[in-house]
Amino acid sequence: MSRANVAVCIGGDCRKRSEHADLEPSLRCVADVTPVRCLGVCHSPVAVVLDRRGDHAVVERIRTPKQRRDLVAFVRGDAPSKRLAKRLVTGSRRRKALVRLAKRLPPDRSDGRRLAHPVSVPR
């Protein structure tokens, strides 16, 4: 079974919060983490869980240890908790983030492997 892919925003607003430093190591345990430039959501920190079915989840304001734990469980395949469901971005903001992600995501990873879950932009 392949590991999940998660894109983490490293834009200025996301990076300036101390919680950003804690987010990446938590996710690296369960997923391949790809840092990407600003996704335009700007409610830091922001992560995009890339789904095999193309139903990508954009999650904002992952600030507390409980929210990080919920995100890790979601990446592993659990249903989103109520706490995490409040952080899911929907509508035009989600679409905007996915369009930006598609432009910013490298076609090939630095380790030579292609991303297992390419980004497709919803209509």
Write the layout of secondary structure elements.
Layout: E1 4-9, H1 12-15, H2 19-28, E2 31-36, E3 47-50, E4 57-59, H3 65-76, H4 82-85, H5 91-104
Parallel strand pairs: 1-2
Antiparallel strand pairs: 1-3, 3-4
Strand content: 15-25%
Instruction: Write the element-wise H/E pattern from the N-terminal end onward.
Output: EHHEEEHHH
Biggest β-sheet: strands ordered side by side in the sheet = 2-1-3-4
Give the tally of β-strands: 4
Radius of gyration: 13 Å
- How much is the average pLDDT? 82
Ends distance: 29 Å
Give the overall shape, derived from the CA principal axes: globular
Report a brief summary of the structure:
The chain has about 120 residues and is of the alpha+beta class.
Architecture overview:
The chain has 123 residues and is of the alpha+beta class. 36% of the residues lie in helices and 15% in strands. It has helices spanning 12-15, 19-28, 65-76, 82-85, 91-104, and strands at 4-9, 31-36, 47-50, 57-59. The model is unreliable at 110-114 (pLDDT under 50).
Provide tags for this entry.
single chain; 123 residues; alpha+beta; four-stranded mixed β-sheet; 5 helices; 4 strands
